[in-house]
């Protein structure tokens, strides 16, 4: 049985859902709480991973400058977690989360438009 490749819009829906759960974790408390910090870091990482599954053409068209920086941040969270400073995560949440969320929304709108059948 051959697995069909998921559509870009499906990956972006996943990313949006992870970002929503991330916000729910933040609403429960601050990053001073290790459990919340871990949950937020994980959800951000998997949201970025979901966007990474989007076609390179869409990312190149919509986020040529932003995407490499986002991947670098994801790699920091994933591979240097033991050394991850809470301040870095807090700074990312305070100064980058909204921009990343807007990027996901923009990519999702474009993917939806590209995937609609022409009539």
From TrEMBL:
Descriptive protein name? DUF86 domain-containing protein
Keyword vocabulary terms for this entry: Hydrolase, Nuclease, Toxin-antitoxin system
Which family does this protein fall into?
Belongs to the HepT RNase toxin family.
Any one Gene Ontology molecular-function term assigned to this protein's record: RNA nuclease activity
Kindly give the InterPro entries that the UniProt entry links to this protein: HepT-like, HepT-like_sf
Domain of life where this protein originates: Bacteria
Q: Which organism is it from?
A: Mycobacterium riyadhense
> What Gene Ontology cellular component terms go with this record?
toxin-antitoxin complex
Q: Does the keyword Transcription apply?
A: no
